[in-house]
Amino acid sequence: MRIAMLSYRSKPHCGGQGVYVRHLSRELVRLGHQVEVFSGQPYPDLDEGVLLTEVPSLDLYREPDPFRVPRLRELRDRVDVEEVATMLTGGFPEPKTFSTRVARMLRERTGDFDVAHDNQVLGYGMLDVEADGLPLVTTIHHPITLDRQIELAAAPTLRRRLSLRRWYGFLRMQARVARSATTVVVPSGASRDDVVAEFGVDPDRVRVSWLGVDDAFVPPSTPRVPGRVLAMASADAPLKGVPVLLEAFAKLRTERDVELVLVTRPGGRTSELVERLGLGEAVRFVHDLSEPDLVALMGSAEVACVPSLHEGFSLPTVELMACATPLVVSRAGAIPEVVGTDGECADLVPPGDVEALRAALAALLDDPVRRAAMGRAGRRRVEEHFSWRAAAVSLADVLAAAVAAGPQPTAVRRSLTRRPRRTLRAHR
């Protein structure tokens, strides 16, 4: 098959979208398919044989100057104007503007591809792709409505809540496009349930395909650092549960000599909490790691923690299991599906429960025999269930079915009626 893979941003090495694009595209090529990735900034790192077509945005959120205001001479067309105007009024424009740009590009190249694969763009332009004659398969990692619910619940002021509602304004579009998608791929059963409940997608059109882990993630060859606890999370995203982990770690530190390494760029709220809890000397932030450095860091921890309030899959969890690192994780979203529920690969605690998290971390730190057994079990589970090759084979089957069925321009224009919205229950 000739596959156009569409991703509005594809940050290399971290962030689910960029990791997904890199490894799936590589394995699809190894299966004999042709893959061309269409991506906005940040552009992905791709492997040999995978083509990249850049779909440049104005890159308004780039480091080190996020929310920059471009000069007038940078504006090329009305899509650029829309991108700036949406950003200046507090919204997030990238899914919509990328979808418009890439739909225009594909309209001129429809005959070059057999199928398009939307990596959670869910912009209105995706409807045009299939209406223009190209079969479309859509991957939804998890509905970002869940992120919005948790952030709104954590917002300290009315002004912050109003700002968040504006930022997440693109979700109405994403829900409508999701309901119009002919075929939806999700990474877990939990994500399938969320997509059906939050976006109103017909469950008969949803296919589950687990994700994988790169072969570079392996158990360490050197001793682990005594007392080191590791977590990978977006520090200022309430969904990731970092405040819960910091409070649990503050209690843990009164009992023993431990350090916490957070693989993230620290945000203002997290930095303030670290200072308030008196953890400045015990918490270390690291970011922008190369893959070898990340693997080495994962393998250096005695215990790792995934304290998220919800996850559609959790690639870091699988990567840590591949490194044979013992885990304490939240019983939230797809995490139990990933680690199993028998306790062999991870200890599961209720999401948001500070004391349960502290107790589980303490018990695991005190039991080196169990840590070693848990690490071996996690590595074994990864080898049995989570490979990018298997994920690519599964996705290729879905793409082939879409090609056989042909484009469904009538289906994608089906009614976009609103429906009742579910309230997130996992962390209540």
Output the keywords.
alpha/beta, disordered C terminus, 2 domains, 428 residues, six-stranded parallel β-sheet, Rossmann fold, seven-stranded parallel β-sheet, 16 helices
Structure notes:
The protein contains 16 helices and 13 strands. It is an alpha/beta fold and 428 residues long. The protein has 2 domains: 2-212 and 389-413, Glycogen Phosphorylase B (Rossmann fold, 3-Layer(aba) Sandwich); 225-385, Rossmann fold. It has a 7-stranded parallel sheet with strand order 3-2-1-4-5-6-7, with helices on both faces. It has a 6-stranded parallel sheet with strand order 10-9-8-11-12-13, sandwiched between helices. Helix 10 links the parallel strand 9 and strand 10 (283-286). Helix 2 (78-88) packs antiparallel against helix 3. The longest helix is centred in the last third of the chain and has 18 residues, at 368-385. It is globular. Residues 412-428 have low confidence and may be disordered.
Write down the secondary-structure element order.
EHEEHHEHEHHHEHEEHEHEHEHEHEHHH
Instruction: Report how far apart the termini are.
Output: 45 Å
Q: Residue-averaged pLDDT, rounded?
A: 92
The largest sheet has its strands arranged as 3-2-1-4-5-6-7
Summary of the model, kept short:
With 428 residues, the chain is an alpha/beta fold. The protein has 2 domains: 2-212 and 389-413, 3-Layer(aba) Sandwich (Rossmann fold); 225-385, 3-Layer(aba) Sandwich (Rossmann fold), CATH 3.40.50. The chain is 42% helix and 14% strand.
